[in-house]
Amino acid sequence: MHATKLRSLVLALLLAAPVAAPAAPAAKPKLVVLLAVDQMRADYVDWYGGNWKGGLRRLFDKGAHFRNARYPYLTTITCPGHATIGTGAYPHLTGMILNTWYDRGRKKVIECTDDPASPLVPHGPAMLRAGIGDSSRNLMVPTLGDEMQAQLSPRTRIASFSMKARASLNMAGHKPDVALWFEGGAWVTSSAFTREPVPWVQKLIDANPVAATLQAPWTRLMPAAAYKYEDDSAAEKPPGGWGRTFPHELKGNGSGPGANGKFANSPVADEYLVRLARGALADMKLGQGPGTDLLAVSFSMTAIVGHQFGPRSHEVQDVLARLDGDVAQLLQALDSTVGADNYVLALSADHGVAVIPEQAKAEGKDAGRVITNDMKKRTNDAIAAEIGAGTHVVDLQGNDIYLAPGVHDALAAKPGAIKRVVAVVASAPGVSAAFDRDELKDPAAAKDPVQKAAALSYFDGRSGDILFSPRKDWIVGSIGTNHGSINDYDQRVPVVFYGKGIKPGKYDEPVSPADITPTIAQLLGVKMSRAEGHAIAAVLK
After folding, report:
1. Confidence at 27, pLDDT banded by 50, 70, 90
2. Can you give the residue range of the structural domain that contains 325?
3. Is the pLDDT of residue 1 over 80?
């Protein structure tokens, strides 16, 4: 056959052949759900998970469970942790260094969400301190919700709920439709988002008054034999009016002005958060419109109860067992309203917690407490030996020591003075290392992992002038137990993904809670502009 005719025949056959249509892009989830279980150690899953039969069991068994997840920074506490979950960035970028820090300009200690220009909006009678307000203005990078609102169309709607402002706001971002927390005896939001109570929230609260949740005492959910460790262990510090054993009376304190009390110290509060989340699904119809929405819930009772009774207590075990049922209710609501294949969910924690030091010491461990006033005096005396007597230390918040104006400059002007003062701090009982602020301004220049962890927690202008790292099994303060160290029990937390676009299984690769939002963002086709975490490719279908 002539070459020209052959080419013509081949071309005709090609034109006649059916052309495969390009593959349609995978549908995006209709709803993103972020769950944080405040102060949930990674090993709680092994210690207590055998008692979980509901929502937590479903997520850990049928989701993607990362068993080697940890925060890489020093100040493993609530505000920094929730900011990292929400943004994918660490405190040195988010500015969320502590729950409270010393504001040098205002010469006072402030909350991390402090914003006097945004007074609180209560949903019912409340006793609120004059001049207080909260917003997300101090959060220096965008959250996943912020990026979704900026990049997706139709506009993402955001609802966030917690007992704490620092949890609700750092998960929500700068422009949530609803952000709610409990303060002064009432559920509140901020005038940064609304000038009036949110109508559907007010209606739900009116129909479900807090007082109605407090009629029965808090008793064990399970048979006593199901709980590990002994009850009523050494140095538990329950709130006023409670003993160290069950039952814990709830009635008579918990509604009305000033009565955060027993409601805010018991698992009925976590159940109420699920009630609010289900209300958002029903009234806002999250995940049921044309766009992709975000629902965030931070469960606070594992932390509030854990601080008082410790991680081995029957109370913490009971909170988790009840949370297992609460999460089951939330998952059921998601399945029925949004659809089981229409949402993606991530669960993690903002930090872990130490065993009560007195309990660790009874087991022969080197354990104890770094007492705030003792540390302030030790530091002040060391500075006085260098530059003369005076009130050189103005405050200590967490691991951060704040010096009076001009003191750091005076020390810097005397050769070796800063180094000697920092050495005195580092030699204090219960301290493993200490750093001057000038050693912490560049995490990449850190000489060792401890210094890098401190640098990732340092934000210039907000952080202290000296930061110290507690030794293993030592905590800062006199509360029952605490967190805020580089030790495994504080840094290691669970990370679980579940739902649309997720490959279930058990994963042992090292990850960080900072990887949560970049992973979900990749599912959505959203760019996280300031995140330090990365999308975990192994978990994405």
Report:
1. confident
2. 31-99+110-352+495-539
3. no
Banded model confidence at residue 234, pLDDT cuts 50, 70, 90: confident
Tell whether 179 and 262 lie within a shared domain: yes
376 in the same domain as 323: no
pLDDT of residue 131: 86
Q: Which two tokens stand for residue 55?
A: 């929502």
* pTM of structure: 0.93
The answer on 260 and 143 residing in a single domain is yes
Please tell me whether residues 281 and 201 are part of one structural domain: yes
Q: What is the CATH number of the domain that holds 438?
A: 3.30.1360.150
Q: Is there a domain that residue 489 lies in?
A: no
* Average confidence (pLDDT) over 471-490: 97
Q: Report residue 129's pLDDT band, with 50, 70 and 90 as the boundaries.
A: confident
Burial (CB < 10 A; 0-12, 13-18, 19+), residue 364, is exposed
What is the H or E stretch that residue 294 is in?
Answer: strand 293-299
Task: Judge contact between 396 and 380, C-beta under 8 A.
Answer: no
Q: 441, 476, 511: which is the final residue of a domain?
A: 476
Instruction: Give the phi and the psi of residue 476 in degrees, each rounded to 5.
Output: -95, 125
SS3 per-residue string spanning 428-490:
CCCEEEEEEHHHCCCHHHCCCHHHHHHHHCCCCCCCCCEEEEECCCEEECCCCCCCCCCCHHH
Same domain, yes or no, for 325 and 421?
Answer: no
How large is the average pLDDT for residues 114-137?
94
Q: How many domains in the chain?
A: 2
The C-alpha atoms of residue 452 and residue 445 are separated, in whole angstroms, by 8
Q: How many residues does the chain have?
A: 541
> How much is the average pLDDT of 126-148?
95
Given a contact cutoff of 8 angstroms between Cβ atoms, the answer to whether 209 and 135 are in contact is: no
Residue 380 has pLDDT above 70, yes or no: yes
Q: Mention every residue, 6+ apart, whose C-beta is less than 8 A from residue 437.
A: 408, 458, 460, 463, 464, 465, 466, 467
